[in-house]
Amino acid sequence: xxxxxxxxxxxxxxxxxxxxxxxxPECEIQIANNGExxxxxxxxxxxxxxxxDLLMPGLNGQEMLRTIRETDSNVKIIILSADIxxxxxxxxxxxxxxxxxxxxxxxxKATTMIQLIQAAxxxx
Length: 124
Prior knowledge:
Blueprint: E1 2-6, H1 10-23, E2 28-32, H2 35-45, E3 49-52, H3 61-69, E4 76-81, H4 86-94, E5 99-102, H5 107-123
Parallel strand pairs: 1-2, 1-3, 3-4, 4-5
Helix pairs in contact: 2-3
């Protein structure tokens, strides 16, 4: 299983990487610092799963998601963001996401994220 983490916070990158590796050790992980890097890595790495922030410099998470969905409607995507506006959430949900978790990442939200990734992994 391949997971792409798109996140501009190095702290959150490390937290998510450790969380995923601890629960799904066979997982291969790539990290992007913004939406543009995320999209380029998506094309190159072809992940099964993407976790992304929405609020990032340059190409934001919403724009990256929209661009990815133009060519791939199957990759599973979880949004992890401090952007809690209903309009934003509605828009990304229309683009077909697997989950939306608000920051900060708590133990409960981390468990939910791992369950979503594992469910997608076992569904294949």
